[in-house]
Design a protein that fits this description.
By secondary structure, the chain is an alpha+beta fold. Helices cover about 45% and strands about 15% of the residues. GO terms for molecular function: nucleotidyltransferase activity.
């Protein structure tokens, strides 16, 4: 068995968002949220704003081919879904957009996309279904910009050095024995379907926190690794991608994995063994929603074929006894961002993991291989 931990550590460093990209994301969403909350008209209907998506869940990988990093901003409003059509709700934002982001925005089916020179933003207007949700949705832990990686180690050890981290624990990790915390799905305006639909980004975050803890903090790195595989090795495959792919990985990744290599192998093999046909994937917090609903059987079949190939390569890499052979297989799976290994003749040991001439790049807490 070969898990090549130092190689995975450097691989994950290579594919994560760079410090500059993270800084751009923070600048973009902080400016947007401040403008929204200070807008004379919109401030009267906004209950809170908070981050969601792969950036918040720490499952984002760096963009390729000239694309920009992106971040989703949920805008919780007090709009009554009985009084406003989805089109009317989205149009309320147009004067604000014309003022601050003229010629840089587009009204989409369920959100508003803003394309800046350095980052892409998505405004996702929602309506809280009940007034009782207001307190939860204004919690500092929810509206903070902390990601799962920012607080996961503190969640595991419960070693909080400030009140916000403790609040984050209370919000995202309440157990069934503590029913005083609850959150309902939000309503999102679907312009194309001409109806308000349910969405539950907070449950997606909470589920990811819990799953990552159950996977010894390796889960979010398994997601990043497989997102990178999907993005770089099969860019022509249309679906699944983004959150549907992440959700599928979550359903197939076993708990208690010991490292990222094991997680990748077992996740791919579970996909192959359990889902030869397109499954119904119940959305977190909105179980009647199928995350794969917009994926055709043909698109899934094409994706499944790539998973079968990937599972075979990953298993061969994992079972290799020779370091060089194992690394070559992992590079076949993930591409050139996975570090290369020295030729066997130059290695101090055929199975050791200390023969690298390069120094491993430091990875933040939680980015374990």
């Amino acid at each position: 068995m070969s898990t090549v931990p130092s190689y995975f550590k450097d691989f994950l460093s290579n594919i994560r968002l760079t410090d500059n990209q993270v800084s751009d994301l923070k600048t973009g969403h902080t400016t947007l949220r401040k403008r929204l909350e200070e807008d004379e008209v919109l401030s009267k209907i906004i209950i809170s704003t908070f981050l969601q998506g792969s950036y918040r869940r720490s499952t984002a990988v760096k963009p390729k081919n000239g694309n920009k990093s992106d971040v989703d901003v949920i805008v919780v409003t007090n709009l009554d879904s009985e009084e406003y059509t989805p089109e009317e709700a989205l149009n309320l934002f147009v004067p604000f957009l014309d003022k601050h982001y003229k010629d840089k925005y587009r009204i989409q089916g369920r959100s508003i996309g803003i394309s800046l020179s350095y980052v892409d933003l998505d405004i996702v207007p929602t309506s809280a279904p009940s007034e009782s949700e207001t307190g939860v949705l204004q919690d500092k832990a929810i509206i903070s910009e902390y990601t799962i990686e920012d607080f996961q180690q503190k969640l595991l050890t419960k070693s909080f050095d400030n009140a916000l981290f403790e609040s984050t624990y209370n919000v995202f990790c309440k157990s069934d024995e503590e029913p005083q915390w609850k959150s309902e799905p939000l309503l999102i305006p679907d312009r194309e379907a001409e109806k308000w639909d349910k969405t539950h980004p907070l449950e997606q975050i909470r589920w990811t926190v819990e799953k990552n803890k159950n996977c010894n903090t390796h889960y979010i790195n398994v997601v990043k690794a497989l997102k990178w595989w999907r993005k770089t090795q099969y860019p022509e495959i249309k679906q699944p991608k983004s959150y549907p792919l992440e959700h599928f990985i979550g359903d197939c990744c076993p708990d208690d994995i010991k490292n990222v290599a094991e997680g990748v192998v077992l996740t791919l093999e579970n996909m192959v063994a359990q889902y030869p046909d397109k499954p119904f994937l119940a959305d977190r917090g909105v179980p009647e929603h199928d995350v794969f609903a917009r994926i055709t059987n043909e698109e899934y079949s094409d994706f499944y074929d790539t998973v079968c190939d990937a599972a075979k390569i990953a298993r061969e890499a994992f079972d290799c006894e020779e370091l060089y052979d194992s690394v070559c297989k992992w590079r076949e799976l993930f591409g050139n961002e996975f570090p290369s290994a020295p030729e066997p003749s130059k290695s101090n040991s055929s199975t050791g993991f200390t023969a690298r001439s390069e120094k491993s790049t430091a990875v933040p807490v939680g980015r374990f291989a």
